[in-house]
Specification:
Mean pLDDT: 82
Number of domains: 2
Distance between the termini: 16 Å
Structural class: alpha+beta
Number of strands: 11
CATH topology of the largest domain: Jelly Rolls
Oligomer: single chain
Shape: elongated
CATH architecture of the largest domain: Sandwich
Strand content: 35-45%
Helix content: 25-40%
Largest sheet: 6 strands, antiparallel
């Protein structure tokens, strides 16, 4: 019976750690074609659990194809809800080189297409500093994705966002290791004490 109790404590600790970060995947609708004369902003609604924050995010695009030039660029940005994001917004930029959203959000990166009809799948995983800014953006549950195509592109009509959530004030890994080590030492001491009694 004593061995069963220690196994239950171990299983409970593992389950608690596994629930520390919950993942959520959502899809965002994109136009099937992106015209280089425009920049696009898409509103994304997240249901961040109460008392938690976003601890990880990856934004993925599948099968994006360059259709109108021998070389093209696709700029990807995160935007705050100040862009009045409900659905899709377009902004005329007359295919001006560079990122239309530069300085207006968090630049995630630029995907370079090197030849006609090149098809790429790519993703962006947010860094710790990008996540900190994003958590400020989603206070009202909405943030945006900005796409500025320099040249024309076709898409599969969706991008995928995977989010991980965790407690707002989670202890760092060093504190967690110390607490787990102390708990295990306590279990060993109690077990030895029971065996000696």
């Amino acid at each position: 019976m004593k061995l069963g109790f220690s196994k239950m404590v171990g299983v409970g600790a593992i389950m608690a750690m596994a629930n520390w970060a919950m993942a959520n995947s959502i899809s965002v609708s994109l136009p099937s074609s992106l015209d280089g004369n425009y920049a696009y902003a898409f509103g994304v609604r997240l249901n961040v659990p109460s008392g938690e924050k976003i601890t990880g995010m990856t934004i993925s695009f599948d099968n994006v194809q360059l259709t109108s030039a021998p070389k093209g660029y696709l700029y990807v940005d995160l935007l705050n809800s100040g862009f009045n994001l409900s659905g899709t917004k377009t902004y005329k930029d007359y295919d001006k080189p560079g990122d239309y959203f530069a300085g207006k959000g968090i630049a995630l990166g630029t995907e370079v297409f090197n030849y006609w009809f090149q098809t790429l799948s790519f993703s962006f995983t947010l860094t710790a500093s990008q996540l900190a800014v994003l958590n400020g953006y989603v206070n009202d549950g909405i943030f945006g994705i900005g796409l500025d195509p320099d040249c024309g592109f076709k898409t599969k009509g969706k991008c995928w966002i995977t989010c991980n959530y965790g407690p707002v004030s989670a202890p760092d890994s060093g504190t967690t290791a110390i607490l787990l080590g102390a708990a295990l030492c306590g279990v060993v001491v109690l077990r030895r004490k029971r065996i000696l009694d």
